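Lab notebook, bench 4. Still working through the backlog of constructs that have no structural model yet. Next entry is a single chain of 215 residues. Request: give me the structure tokens for it.
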Amino acid sequence: MDISTIIQEFIAGLKQTSLKEFVAVVFGIASVFFSKKENIWVYPVGLVSTIIYTEISFEGNLFGEASVNIYYTIMSIYGWILWAKKDAQQHLVVHITKSTAKEWRTQLGIFAVFYIIIYTCLYWLKQNFAPGAIPWADAFASATAYTGMWLMAKKKVESWIWWILTNMASIPLYFAKGYVFTSVQYVVLLVLAVAGLIEWTKREKLKHLSAINNP
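Model written out:
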């Protein structure tokens, strides 16, 4: 596929973008912006996007994407509660931290389990109900997203690494399926994820130094 064909498909795809998809994209980008700032509005704003995308995914027989957005919705409620939780002194309980070696092994295990399960399900669905599915790519994008969302709720710096992987996989995936505006969204989200990784790394270092200087 040459560049002119890609541009033509991009323009055609944008013209076919529904109002629902446009709203979901705007709220999705806003949600990631809030998460980069460690702002709890990431969750209520994100819920609007995930609920709409769940409906869009089922309408397009995108079962992998539907499962991800259902999971996003559930984890958004969980993360919202976790981020808002305070101790007796009214200090937030959850803070930005880096994963330990044990936590890295856990998240890699979570990714592997989700990948195998999602790939198996999508492979079966492709044969019977969803010919448009791309099992290996859909499973990768979904499993990294599942892992990233879980880590985001716990304010782990490494959540952004998983988001970067999710966005890199989703850009060509959604474009190939005709959701061009959503594909553009993931380009923006990729940039925000890189910025989020840098921002949270700086915040974690500052909090670590503060803890050392003020034991």
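Notes after review: The radius of gyration is 18 Å. The chain has one domain: 3-213. Flag for follow-up if needed.
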